[in-house]
Amino acid sequence: MKKEFEEFNSSIDFDRLLYQEDIEGSIAYVKALQKAGVITDKELQKIVDALQEIKDEIRQEIPLPLQIEDIHTAIEHRLTEKLGEVGKKLHTGRSRNEQVVLDERMYLKKEIKNIVEVITSLQKAIVKIAKDNIDLIMPGYTHLQQAQPILFSHYILSLAFMLRRDKERLLDCYKRMDTCPLGSGAIAGNPYNLDRKFLAKELNFSKVSENSIDAVSDRDFILEFLSSIAILMMHLSRFSEDFIIWSSSEFGFIEIDDSLCSSSSLMPQKKNPDSLELIRGKTGRVFGNLFTLLTVLKGLPLTYNKDIQEDKEPLFDTISTVLACLKIFKNVMATLKFNKEKISKSINSYLLATDLADYLVKKGIPFRESHKIVSLLIRYAIEKNKSLKELSINEYHSFSNKFCKDIYDILDYKVSVERRNLKNIVKKEIQTLANNLL
Q1: Residue (of 363, 226, 333, 335) closest to 285 by Cα position
Q2: Are residues 33 and 122 in the same domain?
Q3: Which pLDDT score, from 0 to 100, does residue 268 have?
Q4: Which helix (H) or strand (E) holds 137?
Q5: Which residues pair with 180 in a beta bridge?
Q6: Is 66 a residue whose pLDDT tops 70?
Q7: Which of these, 115, 159, 117, lies nearest to 332 by C-alpha position?
Q8: In 186-233, where do the E strands start and end?
Q9: Percent of the chain predicted with pLDDT > 90
């Protein structure tokens, strides 16, 4: 029974990821102990040297004793093995409650920078595909119905701007997690008159926490991070859905590279967009990680409770998942092929209905009236199975005498796009993003 509980209680299988942060935090802490006169210069040097050795051992994947509860205890145990009584002085005045939250803040600060770099790399791939296909006209959709002609470049740049907001959220979250909790103790602070500003500087934090109770129980910074990543994954999932639909035989707008697809185990002709489907599926997994931690925290009394150990697996899983998804999505973008002929043929002539309404507005008819006129005209064209170009001027006149022969000049998708100045807008968007990505 004791062994079963030890395994159940242990977190070392997953929190060993924090070993580097834990050792860096311990080195800073022991320096603060020396500065406060708690240990000697000689003891300081011994502990620092031994901790560096332990870091190398873990980096070389020398096994840690599994019976030890967590990475913090494992490192301290190994330090004591090396130094004896001197090693036992490291934990003077320090609690694992503050130690773990310190490690998580340090780890997450590093990972946010990494994720932001990968997002930027994806944005650059998006800008390139927009430049390469700047004139490609396609149907824009609302309610999954063709709505108006748009430029594909304008469409795909919308993701680049979503990603810009995602980066802003992550960097804003970074500001709040850039707080050093070390010196908070288990709950009531540290009695050894440690220089907390020194600790913050040593560990590259911009400030120290103000309330020790809040510091050891706070996981808001992880919730903020998980929430920001959930929004990012939602963005990737929405575009994955579009591309999955567009790659189907019914649409055939795009082709996803073979290296990012799989075939059916039964049907030889199948080419399944597994890369995008997995991104779409893993989005639910990331959402689940956010709700896992919200649920863990919602009823906890202050300050620390063992429940909070459950914050790490959702956090680590979310980080690895989002990095994998961003990289795969970038590969999809970099190898995407377009069937421009099929895209062009798919555009329904009725997409120019709004242009007709705008035409009548310029002739002096109020928009709501012009909207009604064009709605009736479109219904008539559908019943007659005619495109807008195939309607005669007399048929146009039967709906409004404001229609003239120049109506045929606007019945062109390129003209529609030009009227909205979309190409110049796209060029400005590309420049704005390029300046932001430098």
Answers
A1: 226
A2: no
A3: 62
A4: strand 137-142
A5: 208
A6: no
A7: 159
A8: 207-208
A9: 89
Dist CA 202 CA 199 (whole Å) = 5
User: Would you state the structure tokens that stand for residue 399, as one six-digit string?
Assistant: 């709906």
Of the candidates 143, 249, 259, 265, the residue annotated as catalytic is 143
Measure Cα distances from 223 to 97, 172, 291, 312 in Å: 18, 13, 9, 11
Beta bridge partners of 297: none
Q: Choose, from 248, 263, 264, 387, the residue flagged as catalytic.
A: 264
HSE, side-chain direction, 13 A CA sphere, residue 419: 16
CATH of the domain at 359: 1.10.40.30
Q: Of 324, 345, 366, which residue constitutes the final position of a domain?
A: 345
Contact yes or no for 119/229 (Cβ under 8 A): no
How far is residue 395's CA from residue 389's CA, in Å, rounded to a whole number?
A: 11
Q: Which domain holds residue 386?
A: 347-423
The DSSP code sequence of 87-117 is GGGTTTT--HHHHHHHHHHHHHHHHHHHHHH
Q: Given this model, what pLDDT does residue 10 score?
A: 82
Considering the domain architecture, whether residues 43 and 185 belong to the same structural domain is answered as no
152 pLDDT more than 70? yes
In the annotation, is 143 catalytic?
Answer: yes
Residue 210 lies in a domain: yes
Catalytic, 95? Answer: no
Lowest-pLDDT range, 100-114, 196-210, 346-360? Answer: 346-360
- Residue 252: both structure tokens together: 């055939």
pLDDT tens-digit map of 167-207: 999 999 999 999 999 999 999 999 999 999 999 999 999 99
* DSSP character string of 139-192: EEEETTEEEEEEEHHHHHHHHHHHHHHHHHHHHHHHHHH-EE-TT-TTTT--TT
Number of domains, the chain: 3
Residue 437 in domain? no
User: What torsion, rounded to 10 degrees, do the Cα atoms 51, 55, 58, 60 define?
Assistant: -130
CB 311 within 8 A of CB 279: no
Within-domain flag for 9: yes
Residues 6+ apart with CB under 8 A from 375: 353
